[in-house]
Amino acid sequence: MKIAQIAPLIESVPPRLYGGTERVVSYLTEELVAQGHDVTLFASGDSITRAKLVPCSTVALRLDTEAHYPIPRYMMMLDKVLHRAPEFDILHFHLDHLHFPLFRTLANRTVTTLHGRQDITDSALFYHHFRHVPLVSISDSQRCPIPKANFIGTVYHGIPLDLYRPSRRAKGDYLAFLGRISPEKDPVKAIKLARALNMKLKIAAKVDVVDEDYFREQVSPLLNDPNVDFIGELNEQQKGEFLRDARALLFTIDWPEPFGLVMIEAMACGTPVLAFDCGSVREVIDDGVTGRVVKSFEEAVMTWPQVAALDRRKVRQRFEKRFSARRMANGYVQLYQKQLSQTHSEHLRAAADEVMRVNGDGLVADAGLHVE
């Protein structure tokens, strides 16, 4: 199958540090190549892949000091994709909304994965307007704000089985917070929870420009605590060590999390997760096996001994069963095939209609077509 993967340009594929969507695109692309598909990746020029790379910016836009306005870069990238669209069986988009008007006539050969939250103004109106564009959710809970959108399936994220090495016992006596410093990720709650449990907390996180005020005003004053260690962003190798040595991952979110890649990264290391019940959490965490899901701060404190007692081998085993990159790629291939099958059926129907129009007698047997 000839597949185009169209990635965001903000980060490289894979990202050097933080970048969930680009990381997932990388895992999917490499697994599709490993399975023998002919894959072309449209991404930033500093991306690394075994697929055919079409560079759509010199470097990731976050690192490009001259890329003040990303929209023109995306428009040029989409023009490249549109020009080369006839080469591919499937066009798989990982962007937000920019490609919808340009590719609506090719919708039957596209798949668009929604990676972000959908409880935003006008989402339902937008997806109703483009109701023929096939969508893929990354969790069932992600669909809740837009239940009438044209979803053709849900595919959970996956990561390579050999990416992280698991451990049977945590080497460090600390709790981990990994991700992005923002109100919805709620690192303040993580700090307070670690204090309540009388445990050390290590925070490995990115601070975006839009969250600098929140970091300075809400988070930074709490970092004077000797039991709180702010590390900053980590690369892939550092992330594995950080999660593997932790007693548990604190996932103290306060928003409708679409998926939560860090949860399965922790599971891959054998590290259990103590997570608050928002968004996709109950779909990702097998409560009592890979972690515990709680509804309140008080419940989190009471539940901690159960989290600490979880079998890390079973955590890893459940990860391997549910969240491998191969399982993710297989899920997408099934959706690609579904789209191609529908397209083929539509072509047959169109050909049959044309024969009937020409013959005028409604008979298509002589054309050798069978339409079900």
What does this entry look like structurally?
With 372 residues, the protein is α/β, with parallel strands linked by helices. 37% of the residues lie in helices and 16% in strands. It is built from twelve helices and 13 strands. It has helices at residues 20-34, 70-84, 100-103, 123-129, 187-196, 212-219, 236-244, 261-268, 281-284, 297-308, 312-322, 325-359; strands at 2-6, 38-43, 52-55, 90-93, 110-113, 135-137, 151-154, 174-180, 200-206, 228-230, 248-251, 273-276, 291-294. The strands form two sheets. The protein has a seven-stranded parallel beta sheet with strand order 3-2-1-4-5-6-7, covered by helices on one side. The chain has a six-stranded parallel beta sheet with strand order 10-9-8-11-12-13, sandwiched between helices. It is globular, with a radius of gyration of 23 Å. The protein starts with a strand and ends in a 13-residue tail after the last helix.
Order of helices and strands: EHEEHEHEHEEEHEHEHEHEHEHHH
Radius of gyration, rounded? 23 Å
Residue-averaged pLDDT, rounded?
A: 91
Helical percentage: 25-40%
Number of strands: 13
- The biggest beta sheet, please? 7 strands, parallel
Low-confidence stretches: 361-372
* Class by SSE composition: alpha/beta
Q: Strand percentage, roughly? A: 15-25%
End-to-end Cα distance: 25 Å
Morphology call: globular
**Sheet with the most strands: spatial strand order:** 3-2-1-4-5-6-7
Number of helices: 12
